[in-house]
């Protein structure tokens, strides 16, 4: 897969491509990340990439011509990072990881001229309801999330265990020592009884999701075991509150 990133701040992406899972996928040639400086497509004397907003108001806007010139050299779906976009989530990441090539425009300042959105952008995407200074971090967040889903980037089991993949939050994990400041690792995890461990983990996942992210349980299908465990959880919580 090829991910093109159009940005006015290519320096912000250094380091990102040099680490961890991204690096492995890049080295295996499963992934290509192409960071492109929009300023290279500014042909005027001052290489001006931004300008004042028509109608007045604070802030600058990215000019259309350099962006369109850059886009004309690239392929794939065009994604624009913007607070007005649809929320990025694991489902969208899975869809995008199946594309041959995508191009992400990392917005900065007040964003880009709306005519670029109208004529060239396929999808406007936000990473959440909080205010950042630009779309560079969102572009990296999306690229990181998509890259680890590219077949071969990580072991299959790794993402099948992801919360959001199975629709539940993770169960708690422990490592050595078995006792730390008087706190013990749950007995079942030391038992070597794989079936019981699996059931315990499923129950802890369900309990956490029920308490912290009940929205994730809405509309989810439950199998027989999950229904039994959820009933146990609700009974236990009732007893605790008495
Ligand atoms: C933040 C640009 C706020 C503009 C009405 C008109 C991309 C982002 C961004 C930014 C404003 C994403 C105004 C989550 C984010 C991004 C920069 C609004 C005032 N109001 N996902 N103008 N959060 N943010 N400016 O901030 O470019 S994806």
In words, what does this structure look like?
The chain folds into two domains: 2-156, SPOUT methyltransferase, trefoil knot domain (Alpha/beta knot); 179-241, Trp Operon Repressor, Chain A (Orthogonal Bundle), CATH 1.10.1270.20. The radius of gyration is 23 Å and the shape is elongated. The protein starts with a strand and ends with a helix. It has ten helices and nine strands. With 242 residues, the chain is α/β, with parallel strands linked by helices. The strands form three sheets. It has a five-stranded parallel beta sheet with strand order 2-1-6-5-7. A two-stranded antiparallel sheet has the order 3-4. Bound molecules: ligand 21W.
Which secondary-structure class do the elements indicate? alpha/beta
CATH architecture of the largest domain: 3-Layer(aba) Sandwich
SSE succession: EHEEEHEHEHEHHEEHHHH
> What summary fits the major beta sheet?
5 strands, parallel
């Amino acid at each position: 897969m090829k991910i093109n990133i159009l940005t006015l701040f290519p320096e912000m992406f250094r380091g990102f491509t040099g680490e961890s899972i991204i690096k492995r996928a890049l080295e295996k040639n499963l992934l290509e990340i192409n960071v492109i400086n929009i300023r290279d497509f500014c042909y005027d004397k001052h290489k001006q990439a931004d300008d004042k907003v028509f109608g007045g108001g604070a802030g600058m806007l990215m000019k259309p011509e350099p962006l369109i010139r850059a886009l004309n050299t690239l392929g794939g779906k065009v994604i624009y990072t913007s607070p007005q976009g649809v929320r990025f989530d694991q489902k969208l990441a899975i869809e995008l990881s199946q594309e041959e090539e995508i191009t992400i425009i990392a917005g900065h300042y007040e964003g880009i001229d709306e005519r670029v959105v109208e004529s060239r952008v396929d999808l406007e995407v936000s990473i959440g309801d909080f205010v950042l200074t630009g779309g560079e971090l969102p572009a990296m967040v999306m690229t990181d999330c998509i890259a680890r889903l590219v077949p071969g980037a990580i072991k299959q089991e790794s993402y099948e265990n992801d919360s959001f993949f199975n629709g539940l939050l993770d169960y708690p994990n422990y490592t050595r020592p078995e006792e730390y400041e008087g706190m013990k690792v749950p007995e079942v995890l030391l038992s070597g009884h794989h079936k019981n461990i699996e059931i315990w983990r499923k129950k802890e996942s369900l309990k956490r999701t029920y308490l912290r992210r009940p929205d994730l349980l809405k509309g989810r299908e439950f199998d027989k075991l999950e229904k039994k465990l959820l009933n146990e959880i609700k009974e236990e919580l009732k007893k605790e509150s008495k």
